[in-house]
Specification:
Structural class: mainly beta
Number of helices: 3
Number of strands: 35
Shape: globular
Helix content: under 10%
Amino acid sequence: MKSLRKTLQSAAIGALALQSLFTGGVAFGADVAATSQLVKEFRYLDKELDRISLEKTGAPDGTRDGHLSLLIDAGEGTEIKSIVMKTADSAGTDTGHGIWASWKEPSDIGKYLLAVEHDGRTLNTTFKETLGQFKGVNQFELYASDNNSMKDGEYYYLEITTGTGIVKTDVTPFKDADTSYAPVIIRQFASADLTQDKFGSAFYGEDGSPDGHFKLKLAFAQKTKVLSVILRPTDEDGKEVSAGIWRTNRAGVGWLLGIMQDGKAVNPEFNKDVTAPVGSFRGTVSLDLYATNNGSIKNGQHYVIEVETQFGTVKSKPIEFGNKNSIFTDSTVFPFKTISFKLNSKDAAVDDKSFKLDVAPFTLNGRTMVPLRFISEAFGAKVGWNQKERRVTIAKGANTIELVIDKKEAVANGGKVLLDSPAIVRNNVTLVPVRFVSESLKMKVFFEEGELFVTDAIEQ
């Protein structure tokens, strides 16, 4: 199983941005502008989600996407026209294994889509001529559908075209994280029998062939949307083998993986919308999985199960079908908290406990503002207040932040930070930009269809 990732998935916009995250020299060609101040950090994060195809977002294609992080300082204003990602070796020499771009000319051949997200909003659902105008420090999440070159040993760099020139980053190595932010643990995964006929290759119902029957128990730290569940045959070491694949969504090849809960089919067929989730779950859930037998389900074959959520994917170790002693188990205790908000709503939750806020989160100057004391104290941070200076101090472990109400200059872990949106007071409640506070305190922010999630899983 993928436990919680210890590495930081997204660059902090506070102290990290000011502490020279991008300390390596920028490599420039003859037509590349020497504006290294623009890029603060670029790195490969993981390959956990399947969100896009080679040419379109919102179109899972059955392969997990490369997920990368880009942090820039656009200063008083910079137009980002396009971002191109290329493959290279560790020294930065092009290898020609793939090109991903946010924009390409209609005549361009061999370029795949590089999807760019900014605060949970996709800037280019397909190839787009410009990504927009930006000011100050901005965090981007980049997604690139795998073209078989996203694997150990590969390196990547960006060419960012602005209104004044091109900036080329240093290379970042491929990284498929062993851990995940997903608030779900696979408690148990085991084979059951090969005697029942519950599902066919695409629909619930008998097809004359006994199904591979598996038992799956999941534990959710909070209400979580499960996007897909995938059963993969492997060798005993977990390496994928060519013996078919069973999945709950029709993204790419494979047969239907039928799920039953309390005797009822959860997914009686492939949903016509491949992005539709299996469902939302909370607490501990026991499921029966059925995979129609294509001839490869037999005693001695190994399988892993993958559970993909909007936060990431968890995966079991291989189990041997038919071996009653081959059971994957994980008794890990959830070592983190997650806060969930809804924009413009006073409803909030810490894990599964509900709260009413005095002031609802809202958007100001393109930044999401959240109640400072609530978010800080929910994660065990201490909040101090100097009435005379109107100064707020937040401390969590070795991390400290100082903010002055209505002032754009802040201090994070000893470094000065210029904010696009300063701390403000509404109805006697102090509100701050969520990314600055959360990530300066080493926490991660997720946006999902009007909902905002903040987790301290990064520290674990």
